[in-house]
Amino acid sequence: MTSRILTVTLNPAIDVTYRVDTLRPGETVRVPDVRSRAGGKGVNVAAVVRELGGESLVLALTTTRTPDEFRDGLDGLGLAHRLVPALPAVRRTVAVVTRTDGTTMLQENGFPAGETAETGILGALRAELATGAGAVVISGSVPEGLGADVPAKLVRLCVRHGVPVIADVSGAALREAAGSGAVLMPNEDELAELAGPDACRDLVAAGAPAVVATFGAEGAIAVTAEGAWRARPAEVVTGNSAGAGDAGAAALAMHLTGVSEVDWPAALADVVATSAAAVLRPVAGEIDAAARNRWIDAVKVERTR
């Protein structure tokens, strides 16, 4: 079986990062450092998989118009992709990063998907699964025009092909995906929507192979039918937190690929170390590889059940 990791992005973006000295609402702020790239959570995952030495493919919706800045951006990043034109345009997100205030995110909701979007993305995933995949990561929001159950449908397609899948989604899409067979990867806020930390055990009991919940600077937890673990970062880091969760998802996907049994303490340590290493980089979809390698063995993992 191939070790290639497929990532699915239903609501792609052009990610713009502004680095400024201070953010002063109501005033003019000069921006000395601007970065722009093709983005969306699945794109970030695919880029980090490549940095970790893996092979990735971006499956995503894109605009029906030309020129297509998103497609061109993926080409510029050198990321392999299979795109489904189904959006009138691709949204933009803006991350404003300061040393003192951290990251402020400005996220457009995105444009409504056309009526061919669901069949198009399901067909694209089916075709790629037929050629081989080690794992699939379904990430991010669902645009208007698609049902909240579309990520769950994509998950079930992966399960039928015997491919492990991570669902890093939120809101109604997370609730729909809860019983679909995916490893769920909510953050603290998304977990709270599902009734807090105790929800992890309920989700596993309902059929999730595992729940990996991330808590930013506090680390992450993993809950499976066999046990539960908590990992805390080796150091507290500051910087650009946009994309940290996506980096963690990339690390987890690498641990799900080509194994009959996951080493959850090792996987969780990697999730925490790789997420922290992403915070050190100026844009989402990148990691500080030296920091990650330094931190993996230093992350504290304890069994909680």
Account of the 3D structure:
The protein has 305 residues and is α/β, with parallel strands linked by helices. The protein contains ten helices and 14 strands. α1 crosses α8 (244-256), α3 (117-131) packs parallel to α4 and α9 (264-279) packs antiparallel against α10. It starts with a strand and ends with a strand.
List the main descriptive attributes of the protein structure presented here.
four-stranded mixed β-sheet, six-stranded parallel β-sheet, 14 strands, 305 residues, 34% helix, alpha/beta
Number-wise, the strands total 14
* Tally of individual helices: 10
Strand numbers in spatial order across the main sheet:
5-4-1-8-9-10
Q: How many angstroms separate the termini? A: 33 Å
Shape: globular
Strand content: 25-35%
Structural class: alpha/beta
Residue share in helix: 25-40%
Which radius of gyration do the C-alpha atoms yield?
Answer: 18 Å
Succession of helices and strands:
EEEHEHEEEHEHEHEHHEEEHHHE
How much is the average pLDDT? 94
Low-confidence stretches: none
Biggest sheet record: 6 strands, parallel
